[in-house]
Write a structure and sequence with these properties.
By secondary structure, the chain is of the alpha+beta class. The protein folds into two domains: about 45 residues; about 160 residues, Glucose Permease (Domain IIA). About 15% of the residues lie in helices and about 35% in strands. It is built from three helices and 14 strands. The strands form three sheets. It has an eight-stranded antiparallel β-sheet with strand order 9-5-6-7-11-3-2-13, with no helix packed on it. Strands 1-14-12 form a three-stranded antiparallel β-sheet, with no helix packed on it. A three-stranded antiparallel β-sheet has the order 4-10-8, with no helix packed on it. α1 runs antiparallel to α2.
Length: about 230
């Protein structure tokens, strides 16, 4: 299965590959074979990048926050979140290399209450200021428990296109597909105090399947978030 957002690029890359293959045949010499490698690699890489594998979220996602993207956990920190949570939050950031699946999935059950697209820079996705300065989408989700989660698609130095298909009023399920960031990017998830973290720095996570954290009871929101050693 391939991401629908990449169909046009898949077609274009196939046409480019075919043109290079024709050029290789017409060259009819050793130098003609120079075109063969890109003729094969361009469409193959495009197909690989836009793959959209089936994912299986946990059966019961009632109190779970799932990874919204494939990749590596590069930031775990406590911050003040002024946009949607409007208070202390635990931030987990996931870096996606160009080789990761780039389809993004909702981190939890709930209703989208906040939706903002922010044009910006294209710093490398692991830069400490990427969350604040880069092009990004910012989506706020109200969990059925009344707790708020903010998640961000962040463009990197290579990624130049953020795509998402949900907005204010949409009801989502944990692990549900909602968009894609093309060619290398980052995802930030900001959660309320009281969550119990299930990942550590450097962990590899899978969108829609890996548990990032477990939400505490609403009355526990004032407690500091627990973390693995």
């Amino acid at each position: 299965m391939f991401a629908r957002e990449g169909i046009a690029l898949i077609i274009v890359s196939g046409l480019i590959g075919a043109a290079l293959a024709v050029a290789a045949v017409q060259a009819g010499s050793l130098w003609g074979w120079v075109f063969v490698v890109p003729a094969l690699l361009i469409p193959l890489f495009t197909l690989w990048f836009f793959r959209d594998p089936v994912r299986s979220p946990p059966v019961n996602t009632t109190d779970l926050v799932l990874a919204p993207a494939d990749g590596k956990v590069v930031v775990i920190q406590q911050v003040e979140e002024p946009l949607y949570i409007k208070g202390p939050a635990l931030q987990v950031s996931i870096f996606l290399s160009p080789l990761n699946v780039h389809v993004n999935r909702a981190p939890a059950d709930g209703v989208i209450e906040f939706d903002e697209y922010v044009p910006g820079d294209y710093l490398v996705a692991w830069h400490e200021k990427a969350s604040e300065l880069n092009e990004r989408s910012q989506l706020g989700l109200m969990h059925p428990s009344g707790q708020k989660i903010l998640f961000k698609q962040i463009a990197g130095a290579v990624a130049r296109r953020i795509v998402y298909h949900i907005g204010v009023g949409h009801t989502v399920r944990a692990g549900e597909r909602f968009g894609i960031v093309k060619f290398g990017s980052r995802m930030d998830v900001l959660m309320p105090p009281g969550v119990v973290l299930d990942v550590a720095m450097g962990d590899r996570v899978v969108a829609g399947e890996t548990i990032l954290a477990r939400l505490g009871a609403p009355e526990d929101l004032s407690q500091a978030p627990a973390q693995h050693d």
